[in-house]
Amino acid sequence: MNISLKQAAERGLITPAMQAVAAAEALPPETIRAGLADGSIVIPGNNRRRLQNPRGIGRGLATKINVNLGASPHHTDLAEELQKLGVAVACGADAVMDLSLGPRLNEIRRAILDRSPLMVGTVPIYQTGFELARARRDITTLTAADFLKTVEQQAEEGVDFMTIHAGVTRATLTAMERQGRLLDIVSRGGSMLAAWLRQHPGCESPLYDAFEDLLDLLAAYDITLSLGDGLRPGATADATDRAQIGELLVLGELTERAWAKGVQVIIEGPGHVPLHMVADNMRMEKQLCHGAPFYVLGPLVTDVAAGHDHVAAAIGGAVAALHGADFLCYVTPAEHLRLPTVADVREGVIASRIAAHAADVAKGRPGALAREAAMARARKSLDWDAQIQLALDPEKARQSRAGSEIGGESVCTMCGEFCAIRRMNDSAALPAPLP
């Protein structure tokens, strides 16, 4: 009988995936095994699609980055989505999620799974909702069987982790409605389940009711469960309200149920959170969800950065990762405005990687500190090639350097002959004055 990666860790076994992650993180394999056993680390990987380079997410590991891909009903271009995948891989992402809607969603997901060297995640209720609409059924007719059919299909295809909004329940929706919000629900999956609950006042959410059956499916394929934040705040004014916290409490309960069946768990989090609340939100998740890895969208620390939301998310992401977030979902400049272009994806990945690296430096991660020291040495020696290679975005750094007016000089156009570094180097090379 096959056992899951978490069950192997609980039995004291160290698998090749654990060894690969330990080598990548420069940590003992036992550290990875122990983290998998207690749930503080996950290594997503469907047992039908063995990843060549698995990535670990969680306590003590480098902060990881996810990139959302996917077409919309208004813009579907398979070649473009694959180009975005290529950019995500080239720019250093650790995972991608396909959030496609529209008539080609199955084709796009399968193509991404076929070509992605990174772990791939999905939100199965998107496909279920679209297929119901195509069959002229409203989302309020959703059954657990409809949803589980989608999960099984995507599991067979090789999806490594899935977002499931099982924390949107009768109680958590009621908490939101009683307290009131400026922006209600901004999660697609959350809004679908809220509509279902309002149409069926005497019933509980089908995802919550069918949770044990869902776990059996996920366990069979060793798929990591990403417990979705369907009631995440979409405005800073709604952050840390009763609905958000109520859902988080439910996710803590569901985490324990998943672990009991050998299913690895990630917790998804906000959303829009003002800067002064970010650290407390991270600590609260770790407390209420038993140390499970935390996956955050941003968080965006202001609502008014349209066109620059990748910057707002990078600010929040750096603070979040410093205080416990393990997995940052990138945000692009197109957030809230349109489907991102290939260029938007590139900007979003780099901004998120800067946030993750800044947090890893602050946490004293050896690899991050070594890269910082190497850059300092390259700048001291005015080694421009080394500086460009060490940059998180070498392509843009190279373009900026090549576009300067300095030619082959060892300085740049900011200071020219008055370069402080060259002056210090030159003065250090002078002979000592005679006594």
Instruction: Give me the number of helical elements.
Output: 19
Whole-number total of structural domains: 2
> Biggest sheet, strands in spatial order?
3-4-5-6-7-8-9-10
Q: Give a count of the beta strands, DSSP E runs of length 2 or more.
A: 10
> What's the N-to-C terminus distance?
83 Å
Beta-strand proportion: 5-15%
Poorly predicted runs are none
Looking at CATH, which topology of the largest domain would you report? TIM Barrel
Structural class: alpha/beta
* Rounded radius of gyration (Å): 23 Å
Largest sheet: 8 strands, parallel, barrel
Task: Assign an overall shape.
Answer: globular
Q: Provide mean pLDDT, rounded.
A: 95
Please name the fourth-level CATH homologous superfamily of the largest domain: Radical SAM ThiC family, central domain
Q: Would you write up a description of this structure?
A:
With 435 residues, this protein is of the alpha/beta class. It folds into two domains: 5-363, TIM Barrel; 367-429, no CATH class. The protein contains 19 helices and ten strands. Strand 4, helix 5 and strand 5 form a beta-alpha-beta unit. It is globular. The N and C termini lie far apart (83 Å).
Annotate the secondary structure layout.
Layout: H1 5-10, H2 16-25, H3 29-38, E1 41-42, E2 57-58, E3 64-69, H4 78-90, E4 95-98, H5 105-115, E5 119-122, H6 124-134, H7 144-157, E6 161-164, H8 170-179, H9 188-199, H10 206-209, H11 211-221, E7 224-227, H12 242-260, E8 265-269, H13 275-288, E9 294-297, H14 309-322, E10 327-329, H15 342-362, H16 366-380, H17 384-390, H18 394-402, H19 420-429
Parallel strand pairs: 3-4, 3-10, 4-5, 5-6, 6-7, 7-8, 8-9, 9-10
Antiparallel strand pairs: 1-2
Helix pairs in contact: 2-3, 4-5, 4-15, 6-7, 7-11, 8-12, 13-14, 14-15, 15-16, 16-17, 17-18
